[in-house]
Structure formats: structure tokens, C-alpha cells
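Fold this sequence, please.
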Amino acid sequence: MRLIERAPNLDHLQSLLREAADGRGRLVLLEGEAGAGKSSLAAAFSRAVPAETRVLSGACENFGTAEPLGPWRDIAREARWTLTSVSAGNWISLFSEVLDLLVGDRQPTLLVIEDIHWADDATLNLIRYIGRRIRNTCLLAVLTARNDDTPGQMRLRRLLADIPPAHWLRIDVPPLSKAAVLELAQQKGLDGEAIFSATGGNAYFVSELVDAGSRDRLPATIRDAVLARADTLSEADREVLYAGSTSPEAFAPELIDAICGDASRTALEACTACGLLVPAGDLFMFRHEIARQAIEQSLPPLRRRALNERALAYFRQCGEASVARMVHHANEAQDIDAILELAPKAAAEAGRLGAHRQAVRHYELALGHAAALDDARRACLYESYAFECHLTGQMERAITAQTNALTLYRALGDMRHVGDNMRWLSRLSYLAGDRKGADAFGREAVEVLEQAAAPAELAMGYSNLSQLGMLAGDAETAILYGERAIALVTTEDIARPEVLCHALNNVGTAICWREPDRARQTLDEALAIALDHGFQEHAARAFTNRAWVEIQLHATAAAEDILARGIAYCIEHDLDTWRDYMRGELSELLTFLGRWDEAAVAAQAVVDNQNAPALSRYPSLVALATLRTRRGEPTDALLQEMEKFLANTFEFQRLSAHAALMAERAWLGLTDGDAALAGLRQASSLCSEDAAGSMIGFWAHILGETGFAADSTGGDAAVIAMLNGRWQEAADIWTDRRAPYFAALSLLDGDSDALYRALTALEALGATAVAAHVKDMIRKRSGRLATRGPRASTQANAAGLTTREMDVLRLIDEGRSNAEIGARLFVSAKTVDHHISSILAKLNAKSRGQAAAEGRRLGLLG
């Protein structure tokens, strides 16, 4: 059937290809319902490109578990590429190699990948990698995808969210109009109204029904239409069609020969002639996946099983098929021995390539038949499955699997593995929000491993206790056990760089307050080890902790840079747990910096992800609840989730964040003050570092309570200044740290002018609830809230400038930009513009330079 109602789409694609040829590449998503004609549109566009354009294509297949990098293998074969990085297992290097092959020679290139909603994680990661770098290339990447609300579509949305908006666009492929269906049906003398009613304009359904050409009555379903078309083939040809239907991806004629005999070539041509199959280079595939499914599902179970047994035997003999493809046939053939042999191998390959969800599904398939295995092999399967589940944020499944492994190892009397599984359960319990369980498993793991003569596992057990100490704010414990772990792996003959990396990570974070420079150096060493060895989770931890250190030390620019790198790393490596945690850190940092709209967006993205583990959600809950409190917005659900999480944790960094928030809410009259002070005392009792606990003293002071202050040598400089009555000094320190909200709160200890300055800053931030509270403070202090007309300081000014306008004029005279002025005065750029406009009008000046000169002439500037 000819392409219809797609001219606008083709024109749009051709304009995008011209832009790509000029070095402005783009990723395009052709999206529509199943059967909308996305593939037909992509094929028509591919045929119409200029002769100098290179065209490459691949497709994702609907395996039970997708083959890692399946479409890219098609493309490599088509382009005759030899990918040197595949065997090395370094898939980031592989991604870079593929990108170089696509864009290195600057030849205009059209890349088409079909059915991306079925893509494996590794394929999505490679598309994400290319999409983030495509804009300045000569590459146009066209992806086709269904628009239904499926897990595949949700994964696709997450992928696109990680690609800059300027790098990609969506082209919708809508159903055919009623007029188009009537026209097509009329050409075959069919009932167009009935076809449109039955199909809703779905291009595939329409095409199948119209091409079937039945004048008697329309098939009731597409399955009937497909089977009716298959019935036109001879029995021998149908045998070939049945054999091909067992393969969800393109298949070689040799596969059909192995299943049906050497006479299959002629039958393949017959199947192609009738429109059910299409050639794909030297291979064949079904024109539509739904047609393949209709044929496959029509087979009797025993027949279907027999065909898959022959396919599996062929692939085992030829030795060229992916393990994932053999797993598919083994599963369909119900060959339990083959599943148990192949599924773990496929899972390991998927995990190595970063396709962790595919790895989970392969392990689940194997575990479904694991009763046939001995206890040791089953335990190993459970361990591997738990690890992949934990990487994808499925903590409950991970804990269940790890517990099953522990039970099996106990029955075997294998104490080395018993201890190591307890250590893993400690880590998983912590990630699930169960601090008590984490501590108990961690201690028991070390007790078992100290008796089991297992130095490598014991070193990791020590490092786990170090990590728990670090997370609890117990620097002494963190350093003690961290150094024990480091000593074991550096003095014993243990080649375990991941243990050294883990321990350095803990110790570096623990000494943040005592030795900040050494902390940075130690964490950088841990990160370097992780990156050099491809330890993905350890690298994510190092990024997380390195950013946390910079945040605590108020090195906000460095923190923002590290978080950007760390989040990008986690996105590219499919590490959702750590990505979400770092997004929470980013939201807290942006809140501190006064970039509240950005902070809310970052936090909301994590809070909306109900699959994120409790620990990963917590920083975003804190940030979002804080912002909503200050803006006077509802927070009940967020606070309830925070309190549920805290029921099982006794860590300073978690409790202190909650205590600070509740103190702020008490100050605003939103909760009980005594309860808030009790929360501050509880958090303070867990803190071993004066600098870390300074903010407890800050919020106690805001509530009018003393006795929480750190001494002048160990506490935070801004907090010490405020507690000692030097409110302007405190505000200046916060301003230098780019923290407008805390600068404004410091001014509340000052005179009336300071209160009005604080109010201006709070209003500029959008802190509606806090600004209202400060207005009440002003009324209680002076009996009224002054109008925003001229104050005494303004009237005394020769030009009638307000105090704030004088501040702006002085900074103009220093040559400061609007952005610098806004940062210095903790107001928005828009507010600075308003002040400058008023200054120019009052001084009758036409430029900033004239305003400064007039200010000096009038004696306003020294």
C-alpha cells in the first residue's frame, strides 16, 4: 500500500537531514501506536535521501529478554565495522568507538533504529551517549517507538529526559484519517466505513485488511487477517513461515534450512511475495511483529516447542548466535538444562554491558527452574540476582534473594559465604532504610568472618562497618575500621582493589571536618581506583561523597560541578539508585543557593519515582519539604514519609536535616516548639564534630534557645558570628557563600533597616510564609509595617535614593554586572534591573556610567 498522509512528516525529516548535513545533528523520535506506519515512514524517508548520505539501520526485537546491543550488531554488520572494544568489555569505550565511526568522517549519515521501545538497557545507554553529543555532528538518528504506556515507553521517557532538549525532537505519526481509509478501501471495492470502525485508522490494520482484499466479509481480528494471508501459501511454504515465527528478530536462511530442510529457499521467496516476510540484507524477517506473533501463537504447543528445539540446536552448532537469543529458544522449548546453562551467562553479559534490567530478567528465568540445581549453584544465582536488583533499585527483591542465598550457605556450612552474605544484607538493609538491621548484620558478618579465615571478605566486612560509622557521623569508628580494611588489603596478599576503594571512600568522608584537604585527596584516590577498574557502584559512591564534602565545606561551585559529573555517570551506567540520591543532593544545594525553582524540579523528579529506594528519596524529601514550608505550601505527605524513614535510623545527617526543618516550621508557627527543640537536642547528641553541628545551634538560636553553640574554634564562622551578636558579619559570610536565605535570617537579629533588608530578600526568593512571619516581627517591634515610600535615609539623600538603591549604585561604581550585584545583595536579576531603572530616573542619567559619575558629583559616593 502506498504511503498516505505522511508528506508533512517526510518534509520535516528532509529539512532535519539538511541541517544535519550542515553539522547540526539531531535525534528524532517517530512515535505512534503499534501499526501506525512508523516503519513505513522511516523506510520511505531512507529511500529518498541524497546519494551522498550514508544510511545505516537496525532494529530492536521483542525477545522475552532483549539481546544487549542487538540493533547495533545489525548496524555493525551492515557497515562492516569491527568493534575492537566489544571483547574488552569496556562499554563506555565501545560507545565512544561507535560514535567515532558514525561521525568521525563528517559524512552526512542517517541512522534508523526501529522499535526502540523493545531496546535493551545497553542499547538505550548507547543512544543516550550519542544523543548527548549529537548536536555538532552530521548525524540524523531516527528512532521509531510506540506511544503506549508501557515499561518500555517509560524507560524511553527517562532516556529522553537525560538528553538536552535542543538535541532531539518528537514527530508524531498519527492514525490515518477516515477520508484516507475510505479512499484506500474504495480502490479495492471494500467497505471503508467498516474498516475504519474496526481499525480506528491504524495504518497496519488498514493495510492488512485492504491488502487481504476480502469481498465477502472482513476478518474479525488482525490475527485472522494474518492467518488468512498465510493460508494462501502451500503447506511446505507455511512450514517455513512457522519456523521463522519462532524468531523475534531477523533470521538467516540457514536457520530455516536446519529446521525445515534444504528446500526452504524457495519457500522463503513465496513468503516474501505474499507480504508476510521481507528481506533484511542476507536475512529475512516478518514485515510486522504482530504478524509474527499471530503465526507463532497459532501453533499447537508441542509443535511450537519442537520448532524452538531445532532452532536452539542450530544456534548451538553454528556458534554465532548471541546467548540471549539462545535463551529465548531454550525457554520456548522448555529446555530446563539449557536455560540453567545459558540464562546466567546471558545475565552476566547483560550486566557487563550495563543492561542491568535484562540481567535481572535472565536471572529470574534461571531461578524459576533452579530447583534442579545443587545448593551451591542456587546460592550463587541468588547472590548474582540480588546484586543486579540492588543496582536497579529493587531493594525488597534484593534482600529476599540475598536472604535465600544466606540460608543455603548456612545449610552448606560455608562460613566464608555466610559472612559475606551478612555483609551484603547489612548494605541492602541500609539502602532500604533499615539502619537497625544494617548494624546487626554488619557486626555479625565481621564476627563470622574473623573466625572463617577469609581475609578478603573480612576486609570488606571491616569496610562496611567503617561505612556505617561514617554515615552515622561517628568518625572514630569509621576511621578505625576503615584503616583495618586498608591494612588487610595492603599488607596481606589480597588482590581486591574494590575493597581498598570502598575503605578509602569511607575514611575520606569521615575526616571531612578534621582534615578537609586530606578528605578531598582520599576521595579523589577512591574515585580514580573505581574509574580505572570499572567499579561502577564504587565510582557512584565516590562522586556522592565527594560532592557531600564540598557541600558541607560550602564550596558550592565545586559541589555543583562534581554532582553534574556524577549524575551524568550514573545516567550513562544505568545506576538509578545513586542517580536519584545525587539529584537529592543537588536539590539541597540549589535550595541553599537560592535557586529554588531548579531545586523543586530536581527534587520532584525523584519524589515522583515511587520505585526509588527510601535512602535515595530522603534528600529530595528534605529539599522539597523545606521549599514548600518556606513558600507556605502543603507538606504533610512529605513529612510523613520522612518520619517513616527516620523510625529505623539514628544517623546524625538524617536526623539533623529533619530537626532543622521542624525547627523552622516551629519558628513559623506550624508545629510545636518544644518538640522541635527536643529534635535538635537528639540530633546534637549524635554529633561528634563542632562544625557539623553548628546548624543545630543556628536553628536553636532562631527559636530563642541557647546552649547549642559550638565553641569559637570548631564551629562554623557564620553561626559563631550570629550567636555572638555580630549579625551583619554573619550575613556577609553567608552572602559570600552564595546563601541568600541564611543571609536574610542572620539580618533578623539586626536593626529595623536590617529587618526590611531581610524582608526584601525573602520576598525576592519567593519565601511567602517566611516573609509573612517577618512582617509580623516588624509589626511587633515597631507597632506597624512601614510603607515602601521614602524612609528617613532616603529623604536625607540628595538624590532621593533609597538605602537599597545606594547599595546598588555603589556596586555599579565598582563596575559590577547585574548578576554580580544580585548575588551580592541576594536579590534576583529582575530586581536589580528595577533598582537600576529607578536610579537612572532619579539621577537623570542615560547609562550606568553616567549614574555613577552623577553620584560622585553629588557626594553620594566616597
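The first strand starts at residue 26 and ends at 32. Residues 389 and 397 are 7 Å apart (CA to CA).
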